[in-house]
Amino acid sequence: MADEYEFEIKRKDESGKVYYSTYKVPKDKISTVLEGLLYIKENLDQSLSFRYSCRMEICGSCGMEIDGKPRMACSTIVEDLKKDHIKIEPLKHYKVIRDLVVDIDPFFDKYREVKPYIIRDDDGKYDKELPQTPEQFHEYANFAMCIKCGLCMAACPIEGSDPNYLGPAPLAAAWRYIADNRDQGAKYRVEVVDGEEGTSRCHFAGECTEVCPKGVDPSFAIQKLRRTALKIEIASIFGGR
Amino acid sequence: MVRQKNIFVSGIILRCVYLEKIKEDVIILGGGMAGLRAAVAAAEYNKNLSVGVVSKLYPLRSHSVSAEGGTSAVLNPKDSFDLHAYDTIKGSDYLADQDAVEEFVRLVPEQIYTTDHWGCPWSRNPDGTISQRDFGALSFPRATFAADKTGFHVMQTLFSRALKYDNIRFYNEYFATSMFIENGRFNSLTTINLRTGDFTVFQGKAIVFAAGGAGRLYQFSTYAHSVSGDGDAIAYRAGIPLKDMEFIQFHPTGLVPSGILITEGARADGGYLLNGEKKRFMQAYAPNKLEKASRDVVSRAIMWEIEAGRGAKGEYGDMEYVYLDLRHMADVLDERLPMITEIAKKFNGIDAHTELIPVHPATHYTMGGIDSNVKTTTDYSGIFAAGENACVSIHGANRLGSNSTNECLALGNVAGVSAAKYAMEHDIPDLVVSNVDAEEKRIWDDLLKRNGGENVAKIREDLRNNMDKNVGIFRDANGLNTALKNIKSYKERYEKISIQDKSSTFNMELEWALEVGFMLDLAEIITVGAIMRTESRGAHYRKDYPNRDDENFLKHTIATYTKDGPKITYKPVVITKWQPTVRTY
Ligand SMILES: Cc1cc2nc3c(=O)[nH]c(=O)nc-3n(C[C@H](O)[C@H](O)[C@H](O)COP(=O)(O)OP(=O)(O)OC[C@H]3O[C@@H](n4cnc5c(N)ncnc54)[C@H](O)[C@@H]3O)c2cc1C
Ligand code: SF4
Ligand code: FES
């Protein structure tokens, strides 16, 4: 084994030119892909652009395609890839701004659409907590772990063909709030997620769940959403809302 | 309002600079916990006010999402505001302003309930009420927590809540470079839109500084990379004094070698510290509280062990370390400490259930900041400060664990409401164009045109190592004077940087260069303050002056900008009912 890794990185400059740059990164200087990128930027090529902040897989900044799969650069240990030549590209299904930096705005716009906040009739009175047992918490706990990294959107085949599809993370967020016993807004959210660009588009291929670094399981959330939507619709047909 | 001109940098066209102006009633600088709380408060106060959140990161990328352990709040009838205040003041080594602390602790509980109603998954008791846990140096277990992802969950909650308001606008990836005061009042904030490179000026009636701490002035650090003290430096250069900057907190348990935090909750829940001989050692330093003593005490204990040759070494280069032992509590790790269990596994391949975790003290909190108060006001009208960017001072010489996120919530709220009230009564002042012109020239005609061949990242690395070595946990006159000399030499090198990246779009190197400029100013202030404070108090420990000296130094350090470096003056500490006494744990 060599004592250097080769990072082959897909670039795009501001004129729109796309090309690849390859860099040699000493193995003993870095552990994660992010450290490798920082090594390159600090020592070899000041023009390389990428996003990062927490370096502990909690802020969601550093998603990119690493060795053919959407991953977080800061928590991908290079050694674990078992390769000396590592190919790095920007996340799929997003517009590239520059190098590994993609336009994440459409993701957050979709997130906002599903009304990802508690909706209550008595909003504004905050004198004590709303009861929630540990069991009730576990109903939505997994879905609340989403770091908004957008990897699932890059893995989702529907996102690739239909950019308007709400997508796995926003739909998982809709379910996270519906499943929270403190929330009363299911009916508003169902209107959004049951629309043309909502849950009905999902084929349950499960790519989203597979790439999620936080075990969120959007695919499961989408199944739950479909069932809930059905229940709410039936209830409204029979006059009870 | 668009102005265009071509800029040439050593023959290469740096596309164009556009000057864009944006007006908002209230401007919030920073989208972390303090900034988001302020934004929601201002937007809620009056739905007709426009609120602009200006942040160099998308809000959820802010450092606040890293906060792990908990947030202190008096919720239990057996606890009391006086106890919370006393713990805070004792923790501060009596440098906190006691009137501010007393007011602050009373503001916290409603913030816990408010965020609960907004969806924060605060950890619960079996009966559905909010649960609390012990934390370092607390006399009652009042750390309210969301497993060990407290900051993460509070941030998701606040960000989502903010999306409900149509009068909040987010300016993501706008990097603030300077702020201007005119006639004693906020005038404008200059930024670079990182996506386009456009020079963008924000005008508003009021501004809230919530741009976080300065911890990445150091190399071994628990902080996100983005925490470079920009807010402190921008305020300082504009003429707002900074307070108590020499007090930098070191958290005892940064994971070796990355510095990622292993929460204090691990020790509060019963974890042990072992030295290189695999023996517990805290009984020699804090016989009562042991591993649960305050952070400055535990961090020093670890360093004394290492200095005495009882550190562990070998596995991570030259770095010596001690161990955190959680093996005896393996059965509660997954429920109470899931994040750090996952971190040890993911980043070090260590199974905390059966193996020891290597740790070393790491910079963790900036006690100092903008000289402000519990009303979040500053010396200048229309300028407010909250969160780690502010120095109220609640934390004095040493912040207690779990006492920052609550400050972001409680005083973020106060700042948002105060800024909104101020905005209701004032107009947007006329822009002083000469100011923003000068700033534009500083960046495009000076910084980008420097061509002395110095690499910004190298200066930053040298600066950080210098701070670790000479302005760290143990300080003395020799080391501090060396540090100051080094900082001056880095400043000279900074005059000779060459920014290689000529792109307008997402020019990270320019961003780094601006940050390093801020960091150099702050490093100087910290070091000068530390040289002049010839005593040991809280996180500031002078080996050559190992005792606290209340007669001469029961006072806040105030640093004011001058062209020749910081001017240092002092300001009295407010004492209400807790007279300074010897501090033992
Ligand atoms: C690892 C870790 C764990 C912690 N755990 C706890 C805990 O358990 N309990 C507790 O109470 N405290 C904890 N703390 C402390 C606490 O997390 C922080 O003090 C707090 O989150 C700071 O929040 P903030 O909003 O003031 O700043 P930040 O979250 O740092 O936000 C700063 C904001 O300012 C913006 N900004 C900065 N510079 C610029 C610029 N030039 N232009 C535009 N925008 C800018 C950033 O984009 C960001 O949005 C922890 C700290 C660390 C390091
Ligand atoms: S669901 Fe998972 S992959 Fe998708 S954005 Fe959230 S954390 Fe990332
Ligand atoms: S840098 Fe924050 S998730 Fe990778």
Distinctive features:
heterodimer; A: 241 residues; alpha+beta; Ubiquitin-like (UB roll); Fumarate Reductase Iron-sulfur Protein, Chain B, domain 2; 2 domains; 5-stranded mixed β-sheet; two-stranded antiparallel ribbon; elongated; B: 585 residues; Methane Monooxygenase Hydroxylase, Chain G, domain 1; 8-stranded mixed β-sheet; 34% helix; disordered N terminus; binds flavin-adenine dinucleotide; binds FE2/S2 (inorganic) cluster
Task: Provide a short characterization of the protein structure.
The complex is a heterodimer of chains A (241) and B (585). Chain A is an alpha+beta fold and 241 residues long.
Describe the structure.
The complex is a heterodimer of chains A (241) and B (585). With 241 residues, chain A is α+β, with helices and mostly antiparallel strands. Chain A has 2 domains: 4-102, Beta-grasp domain (Ubiquitin-like (UB roll), Roll), CATH 3.10.20; 105-237, Fumarate Reductase Iron-sulfur Protein, Chain B, domain 2. Chain A is 33% helix and 15% strand. Chain A has 9 helices and 7 strands. Chain A has helices at 33-44, 105-113, 134-138, 151-155, 157-161, 168-178, 186-193, 207-211, 218-237; strands at 4-12, 18-26, 63-66, 69-72, 85-89, 96-98, 101-102. In chain A, the strands form 2 sheets. Chain A has a 5-stranded mixed β-sheet with strand order 2-1-5-3-4. Chain A has a two-stranded antiparallel sheet with strand order 6-7. In chain A, strand 6 and strand 7 (101-102) form a beta hairpin. Chain B has 585 residues and is an alpha+beta fold. Chain B contains 15 helices and 21 strands. In chain B, the strands form 4 sheets. In chain B, strands 1, 2, 3, 7, 8, 9, 10 and 18 form an 8-stranded mixed β-sheet that branches. In chain B, helix 2 (81-91) crosses helix 3. Chain B starts with a strand and ends in a 13-residue tail after the last strand. FE2/S2 (inorganic) cluster (FES) is lined by residues 52-55, 57-62, 72, 74 of chain A.
